[in-house]
Amino acid sequence: MIHVIAIVTAHPGKRQAILDELHAKVPLALAEEGCIEYTVTVDADVVGPMHTQTKFGEDTIIIIEKWESLDHLEAHSTAPHVEEYFSVVNSLMASRVVHFLSSTR
Length: 105
Known about the structure:
The protein has 105 residues and is of the alpha+beta class.
């Protein structure tokens, strides 16, 4: 299994536009072969009693993905809806950092 954590930082005031594009694409990603999870997240206001959390910031979106294999993830990266997403949001993003992880068990 491959885990992906994508940290997308929007230009100021552009986060909602990116979120709108992402929310439209989530069902397409989830329908792809090998997709286990595709979740779009932002900072929570408060997480339980942990009031000392470090926030990513109001312009940041975290996408959490799980894929059955690297082959499935690679197929996703060239899917038409992914290419369409990037054609719309590239100019809205200030930065994008992607982490690829594997389970230790």
